[in-house]
From TrEMBL:
In the C-terminal section; belongs to the class-I pyridoxal-phosphate-dependent aminotransferase family. Residues 11-79 form the HTH gntR-type domain. The keyword Iron-sulfur does not apply. SUPFAM superfamilies: PLP-dependent transferases, Winged helix' DNA-binding domain. GO terms for molecular function: DNA binding; DNA-binding transcription factor activity; pyridoxal phosphate binding; transaminase activity. Keywords: Aminotransferase, DNA-binding, Pyridoxal phosphate, Transcription, Transcription regulation, Transferase. This is PLP-dependent aminotransferase family protein. Its cofactor is pyridoxal 5'-phosphate. It comes from Paenibacillus faecis. InterPro entries: Aminotransferase_I/II_large, HTH_trans_reg/aminotransferase, PyrdxlP-dep_Trfase, PyrdxlP-dep_Trfase_major, PyrdxlP-dep_Trfase_small, Tscrpt_reg_HTH_GntR, WH-like_DNA-bd_sf, WH_DNA-bd_sf.
Length: 488
């Protein structure tokens, strides 16, 4: 015994000794009332200092695994080891798949990340639209953390409030006001990123129309997943180069009632289209006429590379309260800090706060305070300037490569971290992906973003985390492979 102990670097020795002995006790290798070696003897057996063993024994005694008798040594406590099964008892093994709910089964079915292509080392991957971690402003993040911890560290490590961390809430309200939002009668809720915000809003909506939602087609896949998991029937409306097709939208609204609309008006995922100001106003008028609330996804709003700023729908709605805005800095700053927000009518936020409290108590106060201090220190503007410059350069290079090499029917994307490509109707991007992956290049086929099973002739190209050289090499390979498949 004791000959299988191995020290690992980077962890206190006495903790490793404690864990090792605890494991022996729980497995029954050290039994109840068995006397343990003296601290000096065990130190020699394990190749560690006596002081490390003394500290390990102290911890084990505090945790109730051993006890000490003055002048006699240390012993394993009674009942400290796990009881073994009865000799004639068969361990019961449940088939958990049989116990899964319909929602859980559907979540697995919709989880493309779990079943998607794995990028082998050296693969050029255009699948990600996450920010490039090489741009992360690490020094200022560290400074923000230390600043906030110095001011109120003990408070931040305790429970927080479901509604959010007040300094961050106030900052974000001012931030949204700077986008032209009339804050009269509105309030804000902090969430664990965009996805929790959408989940909470959908769970709180009363379904007068049986759970029907209308949206752009294609649209954000995370939204499709959540809408389906909440039992919503999705109607997707095709898109024009300047946003959703208004004529088709009005036809759909006239045919039946809807409980809500979900829209991504800025740098739409996956098409990258920016809905024009004129069309945004027309959308608000249409939904107002049909009394349909709008969930606005503020995706990538800050990553504008050219053209004029277009106000979000919630700003264009003025004092109206029918728009629910979901915001996040995940694609602009640091997605590892899981902070998003819902800006909406005060009465709705009051209900959402209770839903949030019941589900997750509150978003990490530490994360919220770190984000607040980073923003408060004036870093967002400086970081955005650097990020926009780099992403704009990559965007223009990727777009130029696509225009040069890929025989597309339509290329869209006015900003953000991706481009969307459409081929002729009879083309299959899954077959293209299979051929390209064999040559070390992968991308995201576009059919997953469609609400009606269409889109097998489309693809999304994410460029944010791909080097210039790999962008050129990868796009050329995709284009050449597509041309061969089309017989060009």
């Amino acid at each position: 015994m004791f000959n299988d102990f191995r020290l690992a670097a980077g962890r206190p020795v006495y903790i490793q000794v404690r864990d090792y002995l605890k494991g022996l006790i729980l497995k029954g290798a050290l039994q109840s009332e068995q006397k343990l070696p003296s601290t000096r003897e065990l130190g020699e057996l394990l190749g560690v200092s006596r002081n490390s063993v003394i500290s390990a024994y102290t911890l084990l005694e505090e945790e109730g695994f051993i006890y000490a008798q003055a002048g006699r040594g240390s012993y394993v406590a009674s009942d400290a080891s796990l009881p073994g099964p009865a000799a004639d008892a068969e361990p019961w093994r449940m088939d958990w798949k049989e116990r899964m709910s319909r929602q859980a089964r559907q979540a697995v079915e919709l989880d493309h990340m779990k079943r998607g292509l794995r990028a082998e080392k050296g693969t050029i991957s255009f699948t990600s639209i996450a920010p490039d971690e090489q741009l992360f402003d690490l020094e200022n993040v560290k400074r923000a953390f230390l600043d906030r911890m110095a001011m109120e560290g003990r408070v931040l490590l305790n429970y927080g409030y479901a509604k959010g961390y007040k300094p961050l809430m106030d900052y974000l309200l001012n931030y949204m006001e700077s986008k032209g939002v009339d804050l009269q009668g509105k309030d804000i809720l902090i969430t664990n990123g965009f996805t929790e915000g959408l989940d909470i809003v959908l769970s709180a909506l009363h379904r007068e129309s049986g759970g029907a939602v209308i949206c752009e087609n294609p649209t954000h896949y995370t939204a499709i997943k959540n809408l389906k998991l909440h039992g919503f029937e999705i109607t997707g409306i095709p898109m024009d180069p300047d946003g959703i097709d208004l004529e088709r939208l009005e036809e759909a609204l006239a045919e039946r009632a809807y409980d809500c609309a979900y829209l991504v008006p800025s740098y739409h995922n996956p098409t990258g289209i920016v809905t024009s100001a004129e069309k945004r106003l027309a959308l608000l008028q249409l939904f107002s006429r049909y009394r349909i609330p709008v969930i606005e996804d503020g995706f990538n709003e800050e990553l504008r590379y050219s053209g004029s700023h277009v106000a979000p729908l919630i700003a264009m709605a003025g004092t109206g309260n029918s728009v629910v805005y979901l915001g996040s800095f995940s694609k602009v700053l640091f997605p590892g800090i899981r902070v998003g927000w819902v800006l909406a009518d005060r009465a709705l936020i009051d209900s959402l706060e209770s839903v949030k409290r019941a589900r997750s108590i509150h978003t990490s106060t530490l994360d919220q305070s770190l984000l607040f201090q980073y923003l408060q220190n004036g870093n967002l503007e400086k970081y955005l300037k650097k990020a926009r410059m780099e992403y704009k350069r990559k965007y223009e290079w990727t777009k130029a490569c696509c225009e040069r090499y890929i025989p597309f029917s339509r290329l869209s994307g006015s900003g953000g971290l991706h481009l969307f490509i459409e081929f002729p109707e009879d083309f299959d991007t899954w077959k293209l992906l299979e051929a390209c992956s064999e040559q070390g290049v992968i991308f995201t086929p576009g059919d997953m973003f469609y609400t009606d099973g269409r889109g097998r002739n489309t693809m999304r190209i994410g460029f944010s985390r791909v080097s210039d050289e790999d962008i050129g090499t990868g796009i050329r390979l995709i284009g050449e492979t597509a041309a061969k498949m089309m017989g060009n």
